[in-house]
Design brief:
β1 (18-21) and β2 (25-29) form a beta hairpin. Strands 1-2-3-5-4 form a five-stranded antiparallel β-sheet, with helices on one face. The protein contains two helices and five strands, in the order αβββαββ. It has 113 residues and is α+β, with helices and mostly antiparallel strands. Zinc ion (ZN) binds at residues 1, 4, 6-7, 46, 97. Residues 5, 14, 16, 28-32, 40, 86, 92-95 line the site of guanosine-5'-monophosphate.
């Protein structure tokens, strides 16, 4: 999608520090980390948010969560980590391209704010 920041990260038009990339998934370090480990895992396909997911996305979701787990292992998140996907502005979504935040390295309170 032409004006989407994360599509531009996928294409390389906007630079990012990538942690992982394959044919359908990219993981990169968040530009404004809120935890010692803060990685964004995104599909290369433009999907606006988790509200747009259906049965047809089963394969890409499996790949995304496999990469989340791989990133957690590689970043030594053995003490625990959180996977977050904000949906809609009222829930804090600022980039309308599906992404999963992998957060770890500090105590994570519950419920989230
Ligand atoms: P959201 O607020 O939609 O849940 O998460 C979007 C995340 O993308 C934020 O944590 C924000 O810091 C991150 N972000 C926004 N623009 C960029 C960018 O250009 N590069 C990187 N690496 N992260 C970004
Ligand atoms: Zn996009």
């Amino acid at each position: 999608m032409a004006e989407c920041i994360f599509c531009k990260i996928v294409s390389g038009e906007i630079p990012s520090k990538k942690a992982y990339e394959d044919d359908c998934v990219v993981a990169f370090y968040d530009i404004a980390p809120v935890a010692p480990t803060h990685i964004l895992v995104i599909p290369k396909e433009h999907i606006p948010s988790a509200a747009d997911l259906g049965e047809g996305h089963a394969a890409v979701l499996g790949r995304l969560f496999a990469v989340v787990a791989q990133m957690a292992r590689e970043h030594h998140c053995a003490d625990g980590f959180r996977v977050v996907s904000n949906v809609g502005e009222s829930a804090g979504q600022s980039v309308p391209h599906l992404h999963f935040h992998l957060l770890s390295g500090r105590a994570l309170s519950w419920p989230p704010g």
